[in-house]
Design goal:
InterPro entries: Uncharacterised_IM_CreD (IPR010364). The chain is an all-alpha fold. It is built from one helix and no strands.
Amino acid sequence: MILSSEDYALLLGSIAIFVFLALLMYLTRKINWYSFGSPKGEIQSS
């Protein structure tokens, strides 16, 4: 079965979004999001 250009666009877009989100999650894995918005002295490191 031959895919039409719309099918290829949907497939490529889905793959691109997946790769982008995976890369974003990988790059931000060490960020402590709970520390944002708090003064520096209040967060205890564990």
